[in-house]
Amino acid sequence: MTPGAITFYWGVRGPIEGLNHHTIFLPDRSEEAYTDLARGRLPETPAFYLSIPSKSDPTLAPPGNSTVFALVPVPTLSAMGADTDWPKIVARTRQRVLDRLAREGVRLDPSRFAVEDAFSPREWQDRFGAYDGSAFGAAHTLFRLGPFRAPNRDPHIRGLYYVGASTVPGTGLPLVVLGGAMTAVRLRDDWSEGREPTGPGSGEDAREGGASP
Questions:
Q1: pTM of the entire structure?
Q2: How many structural domains compose the chain?
Q3: Residues 146 and 125 placed together within one structural domain of the fold
Q4: Do 68 and 160 sit in the same domain of this protein?
């Protein structure tokens, strides 16, 4: 599985200078940070992604203000253990993000936050059904990419279909939406005019799931 994520949502009073819509902040010691993440440990200096959608679309915030989203990769729930104090980790991670921004010359004082929310891997699992709190579903190893990813038509159970980041064509909102369209087309074709699919995987090689609808 891909790592979990802590996500922050901030409605900020005033503009944010020094950043564009999309920014990726890499850790000071990348190899050490990524090794920690792979081994189920929280990196001391995490990588994170920061988005300011209001930079591109000012209507996403009240006039003169800003909307900010930050995503910090962390280990999954099972890797961290059942006794993990996620509220404490969220608070610590928030401070590390703000400290890194300050070090880069971006002043984002929490006193400017008009609205704030945060989700840990626990919320991603409990509220949104993300398995193990994983942010992006199945890992993107060589044989989990493109047509090798799990099919959206089950190869064994007739009438069972899948959609989401772990099935074809892949993770990320554009691909998940495309996967939903692909699954809808398969449902239509398999069950059109009352015709039921026959045999495992609806009579087709389910691994052809990567084809265009």
A1: 0.82
A2: 2
A3: no
A4: no
Give the β-pairing of 66-74 and 4-12. Answer: antiparallel
Q: Which of 59, 58, 57, 47 is nearest to 23 (CA)?
A: 47
User: Parallel, antiparallel, or unpaired: how do β-strands 66-74 and 113-119 relate?
Assistant: unpaired
Its domain, for residue 125, covers 4-133
Count CB atoms within 10 A of the CB of residue 110. 11
Q: Are residues 113 and 147 in the same domain?
A: no
Same domain, 104 and 160: no
Q: Are 32 and 134 in contact (CB under 8 A)?
A: no
Q: Are residues 147 and 129 in the same domain?
A: no
Alpha helices in 22-157 (DSSP H): 30-38, 77-80, 86-103, 121-128
**Burial group, residue 132, by CB count within 10 angstroms (0-12, 13-18, 19+):** middle
Per-residue pLDDT of the chain (213 residues; tens, 9 = 90+): 889 999 999 999 999 999 999 999 999 889 999 999 989 999 999 999 999 999 999 999 999 999 999 999 999 999 999 999 999 999 999 999 999 999 999 989 999 999 999 999 999 999 988 999 998 888 878 888 878 888 999 989 988 999 988 988 888 889 899 999 999 999 898 888 666 655 455 444 434 444 333
